[in-house]
Amino acid sequence: AQTVTQSQPEMSVQEAETVTLSCTYDTSESDYYLFWYKQPPSRQMILVIRQEAYKQQNATENRFSVNFQKAAKSFSLKISDSQLGDAAMYFCASCHQGAQKLVFGQGTRLTINP
Amino acid sequence: DTEVTQTPKHLVMGMTNKKSLKCEQHMGHRAMYWYKQKAKKPPELMFVYSYEKLSINESVPSRFSPECPNSSLLNLHLHALQPEDSALYLCASSQVQRSGNTIYFGEGSWLTVV
């Protein structure tokens, strides 16, 4: 069974600074995928970034990047130059290849201080 | 803008009512999902349809009845709900392929059972 753990229920950062959200996971699968989703107050779940476990290179999407440490089963999200619009609940999730079930962490609420 | 559209955005129903939540996607995805999300919690998978056939039912009570009329539409029929069923119901879709699926979510339907 897969599990995903987000140990930081809440985080805050000053606007324009960098923040890192932590995520660890556990799986017995060799092929799997990791995701970060953002859920702002509007409640829509928005895909932020995706990482294939077989790829060693860390995924990046503009100001968002991940630090994927496969041996440590760690998948942290770094947000650079934080903006007020980044304020949201962030969920880490995993899915093994061929599966249709996302396993979510409990989420981290990110606050951006102006 | 989301490519997964859900209606209605808000629904209030009595415990004896029958109502339906609707979801539509035009991304050519052949997998569609219903998730339930309570406040401050991650989404919980309810149902998955692949190629218009129910592939996963996460032991959801029969008062929730899913329907997939075609590859673009997904309904969730509600009958004799309980107040504890009040939640955000998220529809999602993805491709069906072995190389991993990115799941795209709609904006959700807020359901209140009175």
Structure explained in plain terms:
The complex is a heterodimer of chains A (114) and B (114). With 114 residues, chain A is an all-beta fold. Chain A has no helices and 12 strands. Chain A has a single domain, classed as Immunoglobulin-like. Helices cover 0% and strands 53% of the residues of chain A. In chain A, the strands form 3 sheets. In chain A, strands 2, 5, 6, 10, 11 and 12 form a 6-stranded mixed beta sheet that branches. A 4-stranded antiparallel beta sheet of chain A has the order 3-9-8-7, with no helix packed on it. A two-stranded antiparallel ribbon of chain A has the order 1-4. Chain A starts with a strand and ends with a strand. The mean pLDDT of chain A is 93. In chain B, β7 and β8 (73-79) form a beta hairpin. Chain B starts with a strand and ends with a strand. Chain B has a single domain (4-113), classed as Sandwich (Immunoglobulin-like), CATH 2.60.40.10. Chain B is mostly beta strands and 114 residues long. In chain B, 34% of the residues are buried. In chain B, the strands form 2 sheets. In chain B, strands 2, 4, 5, 6, 9, 10 and 11 form a 7-stranded mixed beta sheet that branches. In chain B, strands 1-3-8-7 form a 4-stranded antiparallel beta sheet, with no helix packed on it. The A-B interface holds A 31-33, 35, 37, 42-47, 50, 52, 91, 95, 97-98, 100-102, 104-107 and B 2, 31, 33, 40-43, 45, 48, 50, 55-56, 88, 90, 92, 94, 96, 98-108, 110.
Question: Brief overview, please?
Answer:
The complex is a heterodimer of chains A (114) and B (114). With 114 residues, chain A is mainly β. Chain A is 0% helix and 53% strand.
Feature tags:
heterodimer; A: about 110 residues; mainly beta; Immunoglobulin-like; six-stranded mixed β-sheet; four-stranded antiparallel β-sheet; 12 strands; globular; B: about 110 residues
